[in-house]
Amino acid sequence: MRPNDEGSSHGGTRDLSFPTSLGTSTADQIRLLGQDLTADLMGRVSFGELAFWLVAMRRPTPSETRVFEAVLVALADHGFTPTAIAARLTYLSAPDSLQGALAAGLLGGGSRFLGVTEDCGRYLHDVLSELGGTLPSTGEGWDAVALKAVRETRAARRLVPGLGHPVHKVTDPRTPVLIEIAAQEGLRGPHLRLFEAIGRVHEQVLGRRLPLNGAGVCGAALADLGLPVELLRGFALLARAAGLLGQIAEERRRPIGMDMYLTVDRNAVYVEPDPD
To answer: If we measure between CA atoms, which residue out of 155, 201, 205, 212 comes closest to residue 178?
Structure first.
């Protein structure tokens, strides 16, 4: 149908509508989540609280906000990780494209870095779903559920997400702190309890002890807040965006991107390709 045909959106009889529960604006007002942005939200709602609200479609309680924002802080930056290096080197290559450098870092959020938050949340959610709503009432009960899950995962030749860390070989310092914050707020739910139980029993199956990592505990905490497990990676990326912006700002003040590039480039050694 051409734009000037009867029934089109231009002067026709059909009214178009695109429903949203998020943001709308008029000439003199902006509304977000059913609230007046300037009168009800600005200066009254923290950014973390707003981010939770935008996804969950409900305003978090103060306790939920504390746990949620603790997760964001835990995931914001972890030094010269591949995501930070990607952002810095992209900024070196294209200093005119801040958005490109930021995006480059975010695109590296996958199964090894940041994506573990979602992978762990999904894994725990799937194990709990198999229980049919009947949850253990004791630590021994949680250990039994965890042991069965780890054994099945190992038998399937898959990794248990949330176990191990390339730097923190004994304890990831974020893990006990986040669990304690959740406990203080009455939000140490089944995902965290199962995750803790995995930490206690996995050595029986894997033959070695690995730390419960920060990305994994963040996934468990977010899942206990009732947030969709399919979107947990998004929260990790939201947190890391702040860290990446800090990395780019530091690159401007004290650049090291060129040194990174030259170190690799000047030490590149040609080798014959491997035979088929």
So the answer is: 212
- CB-CB contact of 256 with 80 (8 Å): no
Q: Are residues 201 and 219 in the same domain?
A: yes
Q: Do 29 and 117 have their domain in common?
A: no
| Judgement on whether residues 75 and 143 belong to the same structural domain of the protein | yes
What's the pLDDT score for residue 108? 86
Is 55 domain-assigned?
Answer: yes
pTM recorded for the entire structure: 0.89
DSSP single-letter state for residue 212: B
Domain count, the chain: 2
Same domain? For 120 and 23 the reply is no
Model confidence pLDDT, tens digit, residues 189-226: 999 999 999 999 999 999 999 999 999 999 999 999 99
For residue 115, name the pLDDT band (cuts at 50, 70, 90). Answer: confident
Q: Taking the CA atoms of 247, 248, 252 and 255 in sequence, report the sign of the dihedral they define.
A: positive
pLDDT of residue 7 exceeding 70, the answer is: no
Cβ contacts of 34 within 8 Å, gap of 6 or more: 21
End-to-end CA distance of the chain: 57
**Residue 156 lies inside a defined structural domain of this protein:** yes
Whether residue 89 lies inside any domain: the answer is yes
pLDDT at 12 over 60: no
Task: Indicate the helix (H) or strand (E) that contains 53.
Answer: helix 47-56
